[in-house]
Amino acid sequence: MNQLSDRVNNLSTSATLAMAAKARELRAEGKDIIGLSLGEPDFNTPDFIKESAIKAVNDNYNSYTPVDGYVDLKNAIIAKFKRDNGLDYTLPQIVVSTGAKQALYNIASVMLNKGDEVILPCPYWVSYSDIVKLNEGVPVEVKTDIDNDFKMTAAQLEAAITPKTKMIWYSSPCNPSGSVYNKAELRALADVLKKYPNIYVVSDEIYEHINFVGGHHSMAQFEDMYDRTITVNGVSKAFAMTGWRIGYIGAADWIARACNKMQGQVTSGANCIAQRAVITALEASPDKISYMVDEFKERRKLILDLLNDVEGFKTNEPEGAFYVFPNVSAYFGKTIKGKTINNASDMSLFLLEEALVATVTGEAFGNPKCIRISYAASQENIKEAIKRIKLALC
User: Fold this and answer.
1) Where do the structural domains in the chain lie, given as residue ranges?
2) Per the confidence metrics, is the pTM higher than 0.85?
């Protein structure tokens, strides 16, 4: 008899983690799987950051940390926001969490009541929808298309707003599409939101530095949106620190205090050694990680050139992150090697079983026509993976 809560019974399994687990199972069976599913840089954490962590161990950082983070880390975050984003925050406005995902969950927990609507431009990061649902909110999907680079327009935002709208959540650069909102596009969205002062914005900027268009813009840069925007960031992607689990927010002090209160009853403060290492990471010039960004840019060109030679894959050029999000709907309804492909999930499973390449279905991101392919992998693996995909679809 299932005595689990309705909450967990109704919860979706993370599609990215599920695909990674399936790929591991096949590898254990001796299959040569190329993993292009996880959003994880294949670089090592830079040595100067690791050395800072080793020093923290030797300096005996081993005690509980403040719930909202060490003061000197919060000061480093404040300086980073000012340097990179032109945003002015104070200590009470910063909360450090165990990864940006916890920061997002904190925000949903303290901001949403039952029935509150949260606008999610599609495609969106896989966990947004379920985090909203877990906190009794209602995700409202706004469909975008590859032809407009998967960006929500001001008109679409206006049309999605109802009296129940409480928040809008988006990422830029976007996971999974790699789309980047420029300043004018954000200003157009802000002009709509000016008319609705009770709607708050979550701006997920975790891929901020993996940006190929030479400029990142934050919604909070606009004076009329500053108090209503919760800026979420972390070190997982740009600094290749996924396992260190440090994320943070900058927000109005009353929101930050509420997140601190919530976190105090769930995990308390984040890992002490990781926090010391993140101080070093954030105080360094972004130039220190430019070699990773340069390599991702080369890989982007490589994978787009290769995918453009795969019949039925429609691509655009993502401006950031390390994903491509091709439309594969040309294959829907077709039978290949005895397997019928009706949707993106079928395509993703087909590629895993027949091409031995792990991708992620776009259905998990709110777009059932696309699949997400990560190019956080070596150029050799990318070449081999797309070669296998092309052969499998013949």
Assistant:
1) 6-44+289-392, 47-285
2) yes
